[in-house]
Amino acid sequence: MISSWQHPGLLARALDTLFSGHCRFCSAPVNGDGLCAGCHEDLPWMTASCRRCGLPLASGAPVCAACLSHPPPFDHTVALWRYEEGIETLIRRFKLHGDLAAGRLLARLAARELGARQTPCPGPLVAMPMHHRRRRHRGFNQSALIASWLGPVVKKPLVIRHRDTPPQRRLDAEGRCHNLKGAFRLRRRPPAAVTLVDDVMTTGASLTELAHCLRAGGCRRIDVVVLARTI
Asked: Which of 49, 47, 50, 24 is nearest to 37 (CA)?
């Protein structure tokens, strides 16, 4: 296992130069981090969650009831924030409005927190694939950018999204699962272990289908890192 969140040097120094000036939320003076101490503390940090699916837990149990009865095809999930005010604003600015500075800020905060938690990173990072038509329309794949800012990624595309499915946010849980059946296709044999990266996890349908695709190709260990998890 490697811990990509600890990678030094050029990325950290480059990101230091991006956020000098004022806090992203309250405009208070900051020195190189993009958020003042107060706004950083006020972010909806995920403090207790299911180890398998990342769902917020109030009980302190390591695994939620749903994962005990029907485990997902991934082994471990880390969700850094609840998808609430503050983080939701940054993700939407990045994802829907092309605000790359917001995306880099999210990646920097994520890398720092993952390093502080000493979160292991099995294998290379694999971003949630985006269909080429959707990527061409948006101009970028937000999950791929997050992964590239966080650490070592697969050098060549491992999985493609060969069906352009309707946006998941318009569907209920059952519709999300049905919508993604057969959406992903392996381009080559995957490594024994990977860490999937995505921006937001809602029902987990996309990550589940992607993990099934990788498992079918021989992948034995699949971890997940998402910026935010819905409640």
From this structure: 24
Global confidence as pTM:
0.85
Question: Tokens standing for 125?
Answer: 């990072």
What is the pLDDT at residue 107?
94
Residue 208 region, left (φ>0) first, then alpha (ψ -120 to 50), else beta?
alpha
pLDDT tens string 63-83: 999 999 999 999 999 999 999
Angle at the Cα of 41 from the Cα atoms of 62 and 151, rounded to 5 degrees: 65
Q: Are the beta carbons of 199 and 143 closer than 8 angstroms?
A: yes
Q: How far apart are CA 43 and CA 78, in angstroms?
A: 16
Q: Measure the CA dihedral 182/183/189/192, to 10°.
A: -90
Confidence of residue 11 (pLDDT cuts 50, 70, 90): very low
Pairing of strands 221-229, 76-82: parallel
* DSSP code for 165: P
Q: Check: CB of residue 230 under 8 Å from CB of residue 83.
A: yes
Which token pair is 158? 């491992």
Backbone angle region of 27, left / alpha / beta, with phi > 0 → left and psi within -120 to 50 → alpha: left
Residue spans of the domains in the chain: they are: 45-229
